[in-house]
Fold this protein.
Amino acid sequence: MNDIDLANERALRARRSVVDMAAGEVGCHLGGSMSVLDILVAAYAVAAARPGTEVVLSKGHAAAALYAVLHQIGVIEEDPAPRYGLAGEPYTGHPGPKVPGVRFPTGSLGHGAAYAAGWALSRRLLGEPGGAIAVVGDGELQEGLIWETLQVVQAKRISGLTLVVDVNGGQNDGYVSDISPLTDLPARFAAFGFEVVETDGHDIEKLMDALVPGERPRVVLAATVKAKGVPAAEGRASSHYVKITPARARQWKAAMV
Amino acid sequence: MLSGRDAYKDELTALAAGDERIICLEADLGGPKHPFAEKHPGRFLNLGIAEGAAVDIAVGLASAGLRPFLSTFAAFGTWRAAESVKLGLGYLGAPVVLVCPYGGVSGGWFGPTHHSLEDLAVARSLPGLRIAVPCGEAETREVIRAAAAADRPCYVRLARNETYDAPFAPAGHGEVGWVTPAGDGTTTCLVSVGEKPAQLCGRAAEQDPRLAHAHLCWVDDESLALAAGELAAGARRLVVVEEHREAGGVAAALALLLPQHEVRAVNAGPSWPSEGGGHDDILTALGLTVPAVLAAAVPAPRTSQGGIT
């Protein structure tokens, strides 16, 4: 099995795990977890090949996808799905540093991008290799802290930072285009000095190519589908947070190929 | 003699010569010709007017093993960046040192946007932070050294440009700074927090020699728990004088720590001082005066019902 096939296999298994979490006691943020999942698989694959590279899931509500992917790549040994959201377990609805492989607490939107910028800057100051891949949501771009951070990244030329935007078009209360549309994102990021790459956010091979850092800070605008992999929910804003029955979970998983 | 603000810059510049991990971050309020920038340009970054991002970026640096010191005015470092401080320095416990001049009303005529009478409430609400309000050059230097040596998050509140000759040994580890020692446990002890309160208490104690005077530099709960025992052993009544609101202040904390003692508060009260003037003028407008300290130090006469008038 080559690297891409392995990554796709991991993504499929992780998707099934997210469905299991949606069928757990508390449900989960299914839509955004499924949209970002391939991005996370690609990001960790790129980071594994580049020592000193930190992956930060800034859209922390997609914790289910993060735990599932970290389990698939062996960072979390136990299966997090039956433990998600339960008392005494570290697998909270937004990730924190008690979870293996998680360095920063995220979920309050915008902070992860800034932590990642700090980490990337640390590589330069320490004279060590690596950088940071921050994964943000498109709705998250409504946070002022994101743009404050971009300003600092541009001013201080933090070239080791790659920002991946999971452009799934949805947010908690509906569609981004209805609530606070994000016009002309490529031009906005270009104006902050970022190299802009647009790609299919569910093509892991293309994502892995896009995530290899360059000379300038980079943004990867990854076009994704909310709830990708669950046809009954794909593209629907209502998939943002989902709690399903175990029978429905079996149905959804069986349909995944 | 240097102000606390300048002592911070000077001390950190000296410390960085022996500690490669130290990084100096500013958010456009460090002033020109910053000594750290001149001595260690590769480790000095003015991140611009971006306090929230600055705290988060400092957290990222700290998590990578560096020791960032980030400075901006107290009102912005605590309130503008409050959530970043909560998550990064509180929840995560990243060893970032947030050094904030313009504490209290040292900003004077700059007005309420630049006053900070609520910063300690923010910092003190976050478990794990060490919090210092040093008085004068020597104590500021001691606090910066202690902060650099500890792998812990820390908030340091400074004032503006005035200099202070502090009449007590600098506190590096939470000691009580005794200006006038308390006696046999029956006396009234003034407890000052910060530079101007230390001055007010000093003048009050000159006028009433029966009053003891203790200065507190470290005011996080961990430090106050240690100080409370020492204060309680020497005095029956404590009069806490602080340039801060009542909520989240030191008097309230000591009252909870010492339920058998009488703890009184002289603080900034509830008003928003929105007229010009210097630091002392604003303090007077707030009622932080020597007569107010003396009034609080005198036991109130009891009514026939046993209450306090």
In short: The mean pLDDT of chain A is 97. The longest strand of chain A covers residues 161-167. Chain A touches chain B at residues 96-97, 103-105, 108, 111, 114-123, 125-126, 132, 144-145, 148-149, 151-152, 155-156 (CB under 8 Å).
